[in-house]
Design goal:
globular; 6 helices; 10-stranded mixed sheet; about 20% helix; about 475 residues; alpha+beta
Length: about 475
């Protein structure tokens, strides 16, 4: 082939088939424009196809309580769903479906094996009645009508495939005994990414055991532990959790005497994972620390425990790292003996401050309302005779109260310490101040304890 000039602005293509028609500059421009249009269409198709692939890489795992009936106040029930993915997936979005009118809180745990294969089961003994053999990890906790939570791009909780999480378990803590005919189907919708993600998410929990003194104002309980892992972690969200008398909860990274706030918030707000105040890295040798601040108008000590009348100081830190198959990390300290000031310099003055935090919603403390009675919402509530008897039997069964008052407590019972610490001081005070000398001390103590127990359990009718 060769090209032969004929006149300016045109050319003739000479081929072995002879002379072809000449092409003008206009023709050439049209040809180029046509090629550009074709390229745009092809590129657009490729982009759309890629977007469709991304959408196809997300799936939804739905888990719901199977019409559960709460048979007593402070009951806990669990249900499990298998993560049926052949390859490892990553939870990137948590969408809760529950109401604070029904649920005190709703936790989501990843398990290698669930505790039970039944459609649902009672799980009132913490993690050991949620997961069976193998490892378990916190994934999410919801309370107080908190919204859904989407994780930052590229971060997820590793599940399914060859990970150590093969099941997800929802645990519901119900506030009240259900009325006849009422059932519950609360749960979560989980968005799963089937594409490999660079970073894995996990939760570090700080908290306390012990008690809060009666009528304590601006009372602090604190915790801190050294990060001993070789992997660097990056906290990106936090969640404060308390029940009724907590005012402020805060968390920090401590490095070389310098405190950097991870989060500070009131537990009276909806409980979800809030974005970290500062995005920091945590390296080996750094400390993670948390403080809970309390205001109690109660006439008795408030012990840390699982029921709504107990308290909890749990500060959850959600972090990410490049390591796979992560496990839970926890740091709990004795509220009566552990204090930041004994271990660290430069303790931040604003750790218990509400500065920068909106005015928290007003929430009634059910035990204070019962103790102080007059004019309170609790004093206007009643418990039907049959309801009261059901509640009494359930609590007596759980706490071995009859053995307790007869001087033969079963201290190995999982609920013993919680029951003892929550009620012993009230009972002793009432017994000591009762002028009725005609009743034997044992019988009088039993009567007063069971009477007050029912009074305290009127919380089953209180909208917390």
């Amino acid at each position: 082939m060769m090209i032969s000039d004929r006149k300016p602005g045109s050319y003739t293509i000479m081929t072995n088939k002879g002379i072809q028609h000449p092409r003008s500059r206009r023709d050439r421009m049209l040809i180029v424009a046509g090629i550009v249009v074709v390229l745009i269409l092809v590129t657009g198709y490729a982009i759309n196809a890629e977007a469709e692939d991304v959408e196809e890489e997300l799936s939804t795992l739905r888990i719901r309580m199977p019409k559960v009936v709460s048979t007593a106040p402070d009951s806990h029930f669990c249900t499990a769903v298998k993560v049926d993915t052949k390859k490892t997936a990553y939870v990137v979005d948590f969408e809760p479906h529950a109401s604070m009118e029904t649920a005190h809180h709703m936790s989501l745990t990843g398990c290698e094996h669930p505790y039970s294969t039944e459609s649902y089961w009672k799980c009132e003994k913490g993690r050991k009645s949620v997961c069976g053999k193998g490892k378990g990890r916190w994934l999410f906790v919801w309370a107080l009508d908190a919204p859904s939570k989407k994780l930052p791009e590229g971060i997820g909780f590793q599940v399914g495939g060859d990970s150590n999480i093969q099941y997800v378990v929802v645990q519901l803590h119900y506030k009240d005994k259900f009325k006849p005919g009422v059932t519950d189907s609360s749960g979560y919708d989980l968005k799963l990414s089937l594409k490999p993600l660079k970073y894995q998410a996990a939760i570090y929990t700080l908290g306390n055991w012990g008690y809060i003194p009666a009528h304590a104002k601006d009372f602090h309980t604190e915790s801190a532990c050294k990060w001993n892992g070789d992997d660097v972690i990056y906290p990106f969200a936090y969640r404060p959790h308390a029940h009724n008398i907590g005012t402020v909860m805060s968390g920090y990274r401590v490095r070389d005497g310098v405190w950097t706030e991870i989060g500070r918030w009131s537990p009276k707000f909806p409980e979800t994972f809030y974005n970290a105040t500062n995005y920091v890295e945590v390296r080996k040798g750094d400390y993670l620390a948390a403080r809970c601040t309390w205001d109690s108008n109660r006439d008795t000590r408030t012990h840390f425990g699982p029921t709504n009348l107990d308290e909890m100081c749990n500060f959850y830190i959600m972090y990410y790292t490049a390591k796979n198959n992560l496990t839970d990390k926890m740091c709990f300290k004795n509220a009566q003996t552990y204090h930041w000031i004994d271990h660290f310099p430069n303790v931040p003055e604003g750790a218990s401050s509400l500065e920068g935090i909106p005015t928290p919603p007003n929430r009634t403390d059910p035990l204070e309302a019962i103790q102080h009675g007059a004019g309170s919402k609790a004093s206007k509530q009643t418990v039907g005779k049959s309801d009261a008897e059901d509640i009494r039997k359930n609590i007596l069964k759980k706490t071995n109260l009859r053995k307790w008052v007869s001087g033969e407590p079963d201290k190995e019972n999982a609920d013993w310490k919680s029951a003892e610490s929550s009620m012993n001081e009230i009972f002793e005070r009432l017994v000591d101040n009762t002028p009725d000398n005609k009743v034997s001390p044992v019988k009088k103590k039993e009567t007063e304890r069971e009477t007050l127990l029912l009074q305290m359990l009127q919380k089953s009718k209180i909208d917390n």
